[in-house]
Write a structure and sequence with these properties.
Largest sheet of chain A: 8 strands, antiparallel
Number of domains of chain A: 5
CATH topology of the largest domain in chain A: D-amino Acid Aminotransferase, Chain A, domain 1
Oligomer: heterodimer
Shape of chain A: globular
Strand content of chain B: over 45%
CATH architecture of the largest domain in chain A: 2-Layer Sandwich
Number of strands of chain B: 17
Distance between the termini of chain B: 36 Å
Order of helices and strands of chain B: EEEEEEEEEHEEEEEEEE
Shape of chain B: elongated
Helix content of chain B: under 10%
CATH class of the largest domain in chain A: Alpha Beta
Distance between the termini of chain A: 75 Å
Strand content of chain A: 15-25%
Radius of gyration of chain A: 26 Å
Structural class of chain A: alpha+beta
Structural class of chain B: mainly beta
Number of helices of chain B: 1
């Protein structure tokens, strides 16, 4: 087993990984940029090294710096988390050359799956179902026109080099194709440095369902159940759940087997996720493979009872998978909210700043993976994910109930968060019925927020509370301390002076 | 003690006095039986008619907000007898509103022109930060007195970007 692991990441995932290290008796090494000195992952780690200025390119994406820290600290392995360098084959290769074990797949697996067109080409050979489209980047407008009419409109133009909605255009008619192609290319070039664009049939209102896989270095590969990730805003996931409300055990087995076939064709090892689009007839199509641990991995951990980060570390030491496919059981239901520092009343504009008050939920079925704490200043330089709140229950209804309850306990003061968005989602009847697709959130947000039935006395209560705060904080009796009523400073100090005067007079 | 409390723009008169067991409280002339303790610097446990409320406070240099359940209220509290309060009420230029940069970023577009009339909700500037663009809107109908920033300028959080009267 490794004695020391460097965690090449920050925020909630760095905390999650270092907790796994603690549990396995492994020394954790954290890295931090200048604005992350007071971050939670630095506070909690066993060792911590500075790696430069705030900009990710100078710190968390800086391969030579990270390897230098690995060398200096004596870390034997590096866990890349998600995002940053987790799917960067150059980094995986550099670790290998430096004699540091990269906890994840090999560089060549990453390369094969990293380009969506290359992934398609490989997967077509192993009989993986695809959304009809081109496996190669479009070379010209003519080629795009021909492909589009073969496939049939509406079609989707997509960037080969990346996702997150960048370089994607939905095209309804031939007349729109040229301008869509031009703008998709330039957006892809700006976002990924690669303007390669390919074409796919547009599936209307699809579900996004992904399958977790795990493979050891001997090639034993298993699937661990699916996650439904259809709730997205601007192609960013917002709320995920597992199992999917529409996947029965038979469909799960078929999707799992395809996922394992994909992983094996990529010579995959360690944790990965195969993403599928599912149409309204429950046909599933390979979308892409994510060659890393994902943000929403806690969902799979809760419904399988497995610790994926423990398993990642153990696989990286060469250990064989400690279970077979038959031994994996899916039990209960889990649902995750991604809590972001953004303002739902202002188009989700990022909301960095100091967290002045943090009241965190707990209780049955609640898991909270968080990188924030009271008094911490959320930096502007990185992704605004603060925490993940996951509700687990014996069925979907219970997991929703627990999550709803926990969201009401969650209070983040001093910055704006998207917590109120989740209340809206969980209260929605279509959501409760499991009728979701990738257009769900846009449709929900298009409706103006119906003003909730409030306690009509809200403003009066606020008024009274305002006065009480003012009076109580001059002499703060804390709950449980004083037996009598709260005394106000003026009265106390008057009493004090009088008492002193009397004492003096008696001398 | 007596207070003038403004909640989301509405004024109330509050009387609060600590008593033997609990508080004497009158809001706008009506007696309210209550009990309260501070549970933290910004958390108040308030019991009114046996209903329990956990009130959270958010304070910045310029304003205070209180949360009652999931609803956030803007709060202003003054002791009407204090000299400071009387001076402030007399001198406040209530009509002028400043548009402030909510975070560090860059002005990518100026949408309005100085001295022009704008409607409430009309876009004045577009600020780019954290790879996203955001339109800063005028909170009221009025006239754009000044626009302090120009296209391409870098701004810091708190910088006044425009003044609308």
């Amino acid at each position: 087993m490794f004695k020391k692991i460097l965690i090449a990441n920050r925020g909630e995932i760095a905390v999650r990984v270092l907790r796994a290290c603690r549990e396995l008796g492994i020394t954790s090494v954290a890295v931090y940029s200048e604005v992350d000195r007071a971050a939670l992952h630095v506070r909690m780690a066993d060792e911590a090294y500075p790696i430069g200025r705030a900009a990710a390119a100078e710190s968390y994406l800086n391969i030579p710096k990270l390897l230098e820290v690995a060398k200096r600290s004596g870390a034997e392995a590096i866990h890349p988390g998600y995002g940053f360098l987790s799917e960067n084959p150059k980094f995986a290769r550099a670790c290998s050359e430096a004699g540091v074990k990269f906890i994840g797949p090999t560089a060549s697996s990453m390369e094969m799956m990293g380009s969506k067109t290359r992934a398609r080409q490989h997967m077509e050979r192993v009989g993986v179902p695809f959304v009809p489209g081109t496996a190669r980047g479009l070379q010209s407008l003519d080629e795009a026109m021909r492909a589009a009419s073969d496939i049939g409109f509406p079609i989707m133009l997509k960037a080969a080099a990346g996702g997150g909605g960048k370089g994607m255009r939905l095209v309804h008619a031939p007349g729109e194709l040229k301008s869509a192609l031009d703008s998709a290319r330039s957006e892809a070039e700006r976002a990924f440095g690669d303007d390669e664009v390919y074409i796919e049939k547009a599936i209307l209102n699809p579900r996004h369902i992904e399958m977790q896989v795990l493979a050891d270095e001997q090639g034993n590969t298993v699937w661990l159940g699916e996650r439904e990730c259809s709730l997205q805003r601007r192609h960013q996931k917002v709320l995920e759940e597992g199992p999917s409300p529409i996947v029965d055990s038979e469909m799960r087995r078929r999707m799992g087997e395809v996922a394992v076939r994909v992983a094996k064709a990529a010579n995959y090892c360690n944790a990965g996720t195969i993403e599928f689009l599912v149409d309204q007839q429950k046909n599933f199509y390979f979308l892409e493979m994510n060659t890393r641990l994902q943000v929403e991995h806690p969902i799979t951990e809760l419904i399988t009872g497995l610790d994926l980060v423990h398993l990642q570390i153990r696989i990286a030491t060469g250990e064989k998978l400690p279970f077979t496919q038959d031994e994996i059981k899916i039990r209960g239901h889990a649902m995750e909210c991604r809590i972001y520092a953004e303002d739902p009343d202002n188009n989700y504009f990022p909301s960095p700043g100091k967290i002045t008050l943090l009241l965190s939920p707990a209780g049955p079925g609640i898991r909270r993976d968080s990188g924030m704490y009271e008094g911490w200043t959320v930096p502007i330089d990185y992704d605004a994910l603060l925490a993940k709140l996951i509700g687990y229950g014996s069925d979907r209804k219970q997991s929703i109930g627990r999550l709803r309850r926990a969201l009401n306990e969650y209070f983040v003061g001093g910055i704006k968060t998207n917590i109120s968005l989740f209340r809206r989602i969980l209260d929605d009847s279509e959501f409760q019925a499991g009728n979701v697709d990738t257009g769900f959130l846009d449709r929900l947000l298009a409706h103006p927020l119906a003003h909730a039935e409030q306690d009509g006395r809200g403003p009066e209560i606020a008024a009274i509370a305002a006065g009480l705060f003012a009076m109580l904080e001059s002499s703060p009796p804390v709950a449980g301390q004083s037996n009598g009523p709260a005394r106000i400073a003026t009265k106390q100090s008057t009493g004090g002076w009088k008492a002193a005067a009397r004492t003096d007079a008696l001398r | 003690m007596q207070f003038d409390v403004t909640i989301n723009g509405h004024k109330h008169k509050l009387e609060l006095e600590s008593a033997e067991h609990g508080w004497h409280c009158k809001l706008d002339g009506q007696s309210v039986p209550l009990d309260a303790v501070l549970a933290g610097r910004d958390v108040l446990s308030l019991l009114i008619d046996r209903k329990a409320y956990e009130i959270k406070r958010e304070r910045t240099a310029t304003d205070t907000h209180l949360w009652v359940g999931p609803v956030r209220y803007a709060v202003e509290l003054t002791d009407p007898r204090s000299l400071r309060a009387r001076k402030a009420a007399a001198g406040a230029d209530r009509g002028t509103v400043k548009l402030v940069a909510p975070m560090p970023g860059k002005i990518v577009r100026v949408l309005a022109v100085e001295k022009s009339e704008v409607e409430a909700g009309q876009g004045i500037l577009v600020v780019e930060a954290m790879k996203m663009q955001n339109e800063l809107k005028s909170p009221k109908k009025g006239v754009v007195q000044r626009i302090m920033a120009s296209e391409g300028a870098a701004v810091n959080a708190g910088d006044v970007l425009a003044v609308v009267e």
